[in-house]
Structures are given as structure tokens and as C-alpha cells.
Amino acid sequence: MKDVTPAIRAGFLLPLALCAGLQVLLLFVLGGRGFAWTFTSPLSAATMGAGYCGGLAMLVSALRLRRWVDVRVAYLSTLLLMILMLLVTLRYADQTHLGGGDIVAFGNAWGWLIVHLLAPVVGAVLLVVQLRAPGRIPPREFPRLWFTVLPIAVVAVIGTGVGLFALLRPAAAADAWPWPVSELDVSALGVWALVFGVGSILAIREGDPDRQRAGAVNYLVAGTASVIAFVRYLGEVRWDNTLSWIYLVLMILLALTGAIGWLMAGPAERWRSPALAD
């Protein structure tokens, strides 16, 4: 059986979990104050922070798992997030605080850029090391059942569609969004949507509920945090926009899907034993 290498944990999962924790504080808790750029609406900051809440939970779960097959969807999804967010940051660099402004936001902007420059390179190198590590990939223990794949497929289709639309046509996406956003805001939110979509496609490919554990935790936490953010900033929502109601329902369903997926995951021996602790 191929286990997760210590380098993957120490060089990628753990540092990015710490970074995700910082973004949760700045975005979800503080509503974007002191972040790398200024959001048009605090709801956008909190919603993006909800994504980092889910990402943090996923990375912490991945740190505790010992089999590579149980971690690789979380790893690849996080690597994709870092690459896409770097591209968005560079595209809208003039709208960030990289050029100056508040000292805290200026420092966070440069820290944000440096992390997103380094993480894809480190992540790609460590992925090669992991793939060359000894061991075999175990067979799936459970067959794919349509009723377990269907909700994940829905997330895949919606997430991929919304994400591509927001990234390829940010102006049109900003006009249609259920609360006020800039093109930078909607592009960053589109990155999260696309990563959820692609991550869901990878989860469907894995098939085995055990291998979807970390992703299910992500669904559960991100969906719940998104609902909390939405309720917290109800005054920012365009209630005459039907998408507002659709978005709220989808986030509730995302959390429920995550809860079911987590309950379907395997028993405790999937987690690292003390003997395997680094």
C-alpha cells in the first residue's frame, strides 16, 4: 500500500493548512479587513473565507490520513486552487494592495503572492516524489452506486460551469451575481467554484467513499460556513435576483452532501496510527 510521504505532509499540506487558517481569520471572521485586496461587499470576503474554512478542514483531515489514495483528491484540488488563484492575482494585480496602501493589507498582499508563487512549484515537485514512492495503489473496496455519485456529479457540473463562466466572462458574471462584486471578486469566487467542480470530478473517478473522506469534510464545512456568511450579510443580498435563493439552497445541499459522504466513509483504521506519526 502506498502511504503519504512525510514530505507531502511537511512541505505542502501543513504549510497550506496554516495559510488557510490565516485566510479564515481575515476573510470569514474579519470580513476581508486587512486582506490582499478590498472587496466590494463583505459577503464576498466571507464567502471566499467559507471556502478556506472547508479547505482548512480538508487539509487537516488529509494530514491525519495515511493512504495516498485517500489524500490525492485533496492534494490535487489544493494544487489547482493555488495555480488558478495565482493567475487571477496576477491578472488583477493593479487592483490588489501590492502597490501600497494600508501596511497590514500591503504585507498580506505580498505574503499572498509569495505563497501562491511557491506553492505550485513545491506542490508539483512533491507530487512527483510521491508518485515515485514505493507501494501499490489498493483496489477500490466499494462499487460506484448511482445514488452516491449523483449529488457529487451535480456539484461537479454546477461548480465547473459557474467557475468557467466567472473566469472567462467576469464582467457578465459580476452583473448576474446575487450580491455586489468586482471582476476580481467574482474571479476569485469563480476559482473556488471551479476547484469544487474539478475536485468533484476527481472524487467521482475515485469512486470509493473512503477516498472521498477529506472532500466530504470540505463539502460539509464549506457549505455550512457559506450559509452562515450569507445569513450574516443578508443586507448585501439582491433579493430580487432569483440566483440568491438558488445559491442558498445549493449551499445547504452542499453541506448535506458532505455530511452524508463523511458518514459513508470507512472506519477509524483509515487514519494514521501513532506508529506512522511523523
UniProtKB/TrEMBL annotation:
User: Membrane-spanning residues where?
Assistant: 12-31, 43-61, 73-93, 113-133, 145-166, 186-204, 216-233, 245-265
- Coiled coil, from the record: none
Q: Which UniProt keywords apply?
A: Membrane, Transmembrane, Transmembrane helix
- UniProt-recorded name of the protein: Uncharacterized protein
